[in-house]
Amino acid sequence: MAFDRNQSVFPSDLHREVWWWAVGIVPPSDSLTDAVKNQCSPNVLEGCRQWHGYFGELCEDMYDNREIYSPASARQYRDMLENIAAGGELCGDAIVWDFHKWQKYTEKLDKSKAYAASGITSKKCLDALERIWLKCKYADGAIAFHNEKYPKIFHAMNAFERSPNIRKTPARHHFAHCEFRQLFKSYSANYDELLRRVSDESLAIARAVHDFAKSLKIQRYVHFDTIKYKHENMRVLDFTVSGDEYPTLRINIGTCANPGQNASDDEFYRRLSAADKNIQDTFAKNLVGSRIQINPFRGDLDAVLYFIGARKASIDRYKYQS
Questions:
Q1: What are the contacts of 111-116 at 24+ separation with CB within 8 A?
Q2: What pLDDT is recorded for position 245?
Q3: Same structural domain for residues 176 and 125?
Q4: Residue 6 forms part of a structural domain
Q5: Residue 98, SS3 per DSSP
Q6: Alpha helices, H only, 3-130
Q7: pLDDT digits (tens, 9 = 90+) for 250-272
Q8: How far apart are CA 256 and CA 266, in angstroms?
Q9: Mean pLDDT of the chain, nearest integer
Q10: Is the pTM of this model over 0.70?
Q11: What pLDDT score was predicted for residue 169?
Q12: How many other CB atoms sit within 10 Å of the CB of residue 72?
């Protein structure tokens, strides 16, 4: 099946989570650059290509067969695959664990709060993963994992688990999305890549926000998965890509630059008081603490741009008074 990044309605939370995973998988045409391919062994390179196909097929099966995979989350299945690749030794095309080490790992997993509270077991997760060709075999005090359809994936997964700074963000995120540029050096997605998954509506809003911020000479920065805009070394806004709700873009905009300022004297609220009712209503609906937090539709764009201009004006006045 083709996962549509503009989808907005889902039968369940698991369907939404699987969809969000699937639309974020990076095509090999982007992640397997010449620089990456030149450093890969033949097995790792083929493993990367098979890994991409494997995750695509796994996402499809999870989406179509929720009753088999639930109540475990998509992330819990990815974590299990990642831990299999990280904790065992590569032997031929298989990952091999010492049986007692594997037993200790699964016992700890089954007793964890996340598993116990939801009635999840490691065995049930493995049984579900067997649907898409993952097999395990016990012999001679060891357990060996291999994939019948995608036999080379553990060459790539095992190499990935030994890549630079793999235990840190955003490297952990890259495992889920087949971001093979992480294989040999730490990799952070750029602006365009972070917006790969967003809906057409959210992408149009992100571009409009950027063009408006640029016209005000507000500088853009990218830090991990957050896109930030600053003026006079103070944050005006930031936005992230969220799969929890549609639209998929979450924008956070500051209000008063000086938190100790009387609201009636602050430039942000002066401008807000002069705005039309629709903008004021949007502000009231989305104010969380001292920030505006909004997943905007196209109809919210005028209000978003107005808030950005008001925030910049508040910063300019605060800096001038300081």
A1: 114/76, 115/76
A2: 77
A3: yes
A4: no
A5: strand
A6: 13-23, 28-31, 34-37, 42-64, 66-69, 74-87, 99-111, 113-118, 122-129
A7: 999 999 998 777 777 899 999 99
A8: 6
A9: 94
A10: yes
A11: 73
A12: 22
The DSSP code for 255 is -
Q: From CA 241, how far away is CA 250, in angstroms rounded? A: 6
What angle (nearest 5°) sits at the alpha carbon of residue 40, between those of residues 38 and 41?
A: 120
Which residue in 235, 309, 317 sits closest to 272, CA to CA? 309
Based on the fold, state whether residues 155 and 129 are members of the same structural domain: yes
pLDDT score at 115? 95
Structure tokens at 231: 């003026």
d(CA 241, CA 222): 13
**pLDDT score for 53:** 98
Its domain, for residue 181, covers 13-188
> Which pLDDT score, from 0 to 100, does residue 308 have?
98
Using N-to-C axis directions, what is the helix angle for 99-111 and 122-129, rounded to 10°? 110
**Rounded to an integer, what distance in angstroms lies between the CA atom of residue 24 and that of residue 29?**
14
Q: Are residues 152 and 202 in the same domain?
A: no
